[in-house]
Amino acid sequence: MDDIDRLVRSRDRCLALAATTFLVWQGVSLYRDAMQWLAAPALPEGVLTVAELAGALGWVAATVLFLVYAGRVTKTRSQAVIEDELFQHHKRKAIQIGYGGLMLAIAALFAVAQLAQLPAEPSLRVLVVVGVCTPLFAFLAMGRASEGEA
Question: Whole-prediction pTM value?
Answer without folding.
Answer: 0.85
